[in-house]
Each structure stands twice: as C-alpha cells, then as structure tokens.
tRNA (Uracil-5-)-methyltransferase (Ruminococcus difficilis), 167 residues
Amino acid sequence: MTKQNNKKKLIIIIVAAVVLIAAATAGILVLTGVFNPKTNDSKGVVGVISDGWDTGIEDKGEQKKSGTRIPGYSTAEMNAGDKTLKISIGNPKDNTVGMFAAIKLDDGTVLYESELLKPGQGLTEVPLTQTLEKGEYNAVVAYQCVLLDEENTPLNAAESGFTLIVK
C-alpha cells in the first residue's frame, strides 16, 4: 500500500511541477509582449522617420486652425524601377494625435505603410513595396489618425490624392 501511495505522490509532484513550469512560461511570454499583436504591419518597409519633420508649408502666424492638420499633395515623380519615392509624408507638429500613413494606388495596391508617426515626425524618402512601370498613376496618401494611448485608439481618417508620375 505504501508503494502505491508513494507512486501517487510522485505522480502528483510531477504533474504539479509541469503545471507550475507551464504557468511560469506563459506568464513570462505575456509579460514580454509575445502575444500582443503589432499595431500596424509596415511589411518591413518603414523608411527613416525623423523627429524634426517639416511640412514645407509656411506658417501664416495668426491663422491658428483647430482640428487635425493633414498634409496635401498634387504630384510626385520617380523613375521606373526605383523602389524609393521622394515625397514628404508625416504628422504636422501642431497635431495632438498620432497618424499611420499609407500610399496606395487607385486600384488598391499598397505601396507603403508607415509605423506610428507622432506629431512632428515624418519622412521625405519613402521605400516602396514594389517598383512601377512608366506612366501616370492616381494615388493617395491615406492617413489614419489615432490617440496617443497604449492602444492607438482609432479616430478619423483622411486621404490626400495626387498624381504619381513614373518616368
């Protein structure tokens, strides 16, 4: 009878140890953020985001507008075969929200998706996910505004259309 009791105790100890190790491993994984989904998938194409980004728009001083400022564009040019587009996209420093920016063609092709752009952050050379052939393309920079909280709570969105000329 004692041998059977000893076997039961050994099995209980082994099961308890396995459960304890599994719980500790799960706790470590949760605390290190392994299970947290990424807020935005930039598909490995992020570019160099600078903190001193300038919209290039002159500030008229007294004309302080309320609301979120969204940069606008008319055209952008690049060479066929290039994977970098020289266009200034970013989040104006006067904004109080974060932004994610994406460059898309009118057929839905996504050429670029940014990481979170905080106020005053932006980039002037955008790495693209693919090359384009010669021609003119209707494109947009789509901005998704978010709160600057841990969840990046979505707010409004805006699009700025432009003509992308590929030489």
